[in-house]
Specification:
This protein is of the alpha/beta class. It is built from 9 helices and 5 strands, in the order ααβαβααβαβααβα. It is elongated and about 75 Å long.
């Protein structure tokens, strides 16, 4: 069973759901204990019915095909946040673009804390994402790539959907921290993207901690 308190996002969602479930019961219980019991039974029945319905209705998702683009350059859509400037990501893009003209669009989701996102306070997160993005684009252009980028939605899948409206990639590259330090991996982002999009999805692991260690010997 997944621990609901493993990440800040998960804990915040769990808290909101718990409040939404128990608050009506508590209010009705103050009025009358039988009213509280009735609300409890009603809510519990609704939750069980929803679970049974959604469990039986699970179907394989229909993959979304990126829009076609004119023949010419190979197009790569990159989704990365804190790892956007990682050496492993740059090396992967150089490998993918070797020997052919390549256009790269880098989307950096503006990750934010649940509380700031809830109150629509995303300015700080977007500014930090834009700063990392600019540094990464400079490195890609220095390596000879035709690279541009934008700060995207805080939900990486939504950020990809938004990018596909104007950019038709031949491949999607998702860059994350190593397993155990990546919220995206914990949420199953790479697997979800491979199920959702009808094009190759490459996963690049960037270990920023290892890169910051001094070389031995």
């Amino acid at each position: 069973m997944r621990n609901p308190f493993r990440t800040e996002d998960a804990a915040f969602r769990f808290l909101l759901l718990a409040i939404a479930y128990f608050a009506p019961i508590a209010i009705a219980g103050v009025i009358n204990k039988w009213a509280g019991l009735a609300v409890f039974l009603l809510e519990t029945g609704a939750v069980v019915a929803w679970w049974l319905t959604t469990r039986d209705a699970q179907e394989a998702p229909v993959k979304r095909s990126p829009p076609p683009h004119a023949p010419g350059a190979r197009r790569i859509l990159v989704v990365a946040n804190e790892t956007v400037g990682g050496g492993e990501l740059l090396a992967e893009l150089e490998q993918l673009s070797r020997g052919q003209k390549t256009e790269v669009l880098v989307v950096t989701p503006a990750l934010n804390s649940p509380l700031r996102h809830w109150v629509s306070d995303e300015d700080e997160a977007r500014a930090a994402a834009a700063e990392r993005l600019d540094a990464s684009l400079a490195a890609m252009r220095a390596a000879g790539m035709d690279a541009r980028g934008a700060v995207g939605d805080s939900d990486p899948l939504q950020a990809i959907d938004d990018a596909l409206r104007t950019f038709a990639p031949d491949e999607i590259v998702i860059s994350t921290h190593p397993e155990g330090r990546s919220h995206w991996l914990e949420r199953g982002l790479v697997g979800a993207a491979r199920e959702r999009y009808d094009c190759p999805v490459t996963h690049v692991v960037v270990d920023l901690d290892a890169a910051s260690l001094p070389a031995s010997g």
